[in-house]
Structure formats: structure tokens, C-alpha cells
Design goal:
39% helix; 3 helices; mainly alpha
């Protein structure tokens, strides 16, 4: 891991076309980025701070059943491509 992807911003038209997978409670951001990367969307990086998110550990899904189920679902969904 080591990389948190929640600070990416996407054009609204791209998100309307690709959409989040509603079957995922966890890992939905990784799934979205993987599917977008397969389509080769244009990407631009910035060093500017775009957002700041604060949360305590009670808000996290770490070591939860949703994390396990989501990761298992992703392996099933994208396993042949990986």
C-alpha cells in the first residue's frame, strides 16, 4: 500500500461514464482507477494541495469484513488481468 488515492480529482464526464462499482464498500477507489487506467484517460498531476481530509481511526475500514470482501471481489473481478 503506502499510497492513498482519495486526493485524485476527475472530470465529471469521465466519472459519469466509468462510475464507481456499487458492489464495493471498500477498495472502490482502486477499482475505479484500475478501470480508468485500462481506458488510458489523460492524467495531470499537481503539487498544489487540493483537499485535506481528517478522520479518526473509528472511521476507517482497516481490518474490517468490508475490506476483506472488497479485496476478494476485486481479485475475482480483475484476476485474469493481473
Amino acid at each position: 500500500m503506502g499510497v492513498h488515492i482519495s486526493n485524485y480529482q476527475f472530470r465529471a464526464d469521465v466519472l459519469r461514464e466509468v462510475r464507481f462499482d456499487e458492489n464495493l464498500r471498500a477498495w472502490e477507489d482502486w477499482d475505479l482507477l484500475y478501470r480508468m487506467a485500462k481506458r488510458a484517460p489523460k492524467c495531470q498531476s499537481t503539487s498544489a494541495t487540493l483537499a485535506q481530509v481528517s478522520a479518526d481511526s473509528t472511521d476507517r475500514l482497516s481490518a474490517s469484513r468490508a475490506m476483506l470482501q472488497g479485496l476478494s471481489y476485486l481479485y475475482t473481478k480483475h484476476g485474469d488481468d493481473l
